[in-house]
Design a protein that fits this description.
Blueprint (H helix, E strand, L loop, with lengths): L5 H8 L5 E5 L3 H9 L7 H12 L8 E6 L1 H4 L9 H7 L3 E5 L4 E3 L6 E3 L5 H10 L4 E8 L8 H20 L3 E8 L7 H21 L8 E2 L16 H15 L6 E4 L6 H14 L6 E5 L1 H11 L6 H19 L10
Parallel strand pairs: 1-2, 1-10, 2-3, 3-6, 6-7, 7-8, 8-9, 9-10
Antiparallel strand pairs: 4-5
The protein binds 1,3-dihydroxyacetonephosphate.
Length: 336
């Protein structure tokens, strides 16, 4: 596979219904996932778990890119094969999370993502290690009096600065402005905040000279808050999400791959499918799920090597269901 330009790499990542496996949980986050299945998080257990995912049959054809955490990009499988080579052998491209997480913004409940200081040097190394794309996640919270425009501007500016540095280092930036689901807010409020973030983001990307044909957007869907009294249904989520994207995202963008953000695995698939059944979009609309791709696999695995095949089967099933959803070809009956 020779992919020489950023535009070719970006187009390949989301070609033919393929999406991303977000396996870039920080050491703290994967520790929480392992706690939930009574499994100790060690360098070896993290490696074993991720190796089983990358060796699963469902990687083939369904996954165009895998987002890794720093540790995983440097790790090797039990037989000595670098994990990034395992990923490449399935036809997927290895990518890397490069943000350094969130910290409080202006001493408030709002947060700002950091990691720009040494990003250029880190990107040069990640490129030499074989990463083809990167991810940076901004986190926007909805609540009493928030988000403020100041916080949105600061986070979108950081995303735009990140994207420019990454493209200068010959990798495709995935830009992730995540509006969190936590709260009682309506889907309309999520729509308004998401619209503001996307509009601000794309104007800052343009100001920085970022090539959007070599960029992937990883947005939230427009959903009701988790505590909303009357949550929006599947069709409403699909329609509002398509509307916010059509109104705020340039048509030249290479592709869109949603985060799952705490939606159940089935709902994340159903929403994506509903959008693609409506169709008529200028970009491929696919998935970049962490929890919604991995939850059933983690439950099946439980940290036991005897359960490896069951875990691989569970992951492969979700990967293939989501690829169908990216083409608007998923059906509920296929889940049985
Ligand atoms: P979820 O799909 O679990 O939200 O994770 C995606 C991700 O990469 C968050 O940064």
């Amino acid at each position: 596979m020779s992919l020489s330009s950023l535009e070719e790499i970006a187009a390949y990542l989301v070609s033919d219904g393929k999406g991303f496996l977000a396996a870039d949980e920080s050491t703290g986050t994967i520790g929480k996932r392992f706690d939930a299945i009574n499994t100790e998080s060690t360098e070896d257990s993290r490696r074993d778990y991720r190796e089983l995912l990358f060796r699963a049959q469902g990687m083939q054809d369904n996954i165009g890119g895998v987002i890794l955490f720093d540790e995983t990009l440097r790790q090797s499988a039990t037989d000595g094969t670098p994990l990034k080579d395992l990923i490449n052998s399935t036809g997927a491209l290895p990518g890397i999370k490069v943000d350094k997480g969130i910290s409080p913004f202006n001493d408030s409940d709002e947060v700002l993502t950091g990691g720009l200081e040494d990003l250029d040097e880190r990107c040069a190394e990640y490129f030499s290690l074989g990463a083809k794309f990167t991810k940076w996640r901004a986190v926007i919270k909805i609540g009493e009096g928030i988000p403020t425009q100041e916080c949105i501007d600061a986070n979108m500016k950081a995303l735009a600065d990140y994207a420019k540095i990454v493209q200068d280092n010959k990798m495709v930036p995935m830009v992730e402005p995540e509006v969190l689901m936590d709260g009682e807010h309506s889907a309309q409020t999520c729509f308004d905040v998401t619209a503001n973030c996307l509009k601000t983001l794309f104007s800052m990307l343009a100001a920085n000279g970022v090539n959007v044909k070599g960029t992937i957007l990883k947005p939230n869907m427009v959903v009701s808050g988790t505590e909303a009294p009357v949550p929006a249904g599947v069709q409403e989520v699909a329609e509002l999400t398509l509307k916010v994207l059509k109104e705020n995202v340039p048509s030249e963008l290479a592709g869109i791959a949603f985060l799952s953000g705490g939606q159940s695995d089935l709902l994340a698939t159903e929403h994506l499918d509903a959008m693609n059944k409506i169709g008529g979009l200028p970009w491929p609309l696919s998935f970049s799920y962490g929890r919604a791709l991995q939850q059933p696999a983690l439950k099946a695995w439980m940290g036991q090597s005897d359960n490896k095949e069951a875990a691989q089967k569970a992951f492969s099933h979700r990967a293939s269901m989501n690829r169908l959803a990216s083409k608007g070809e998923w059906q509920k009956e296929l889940e049985n």
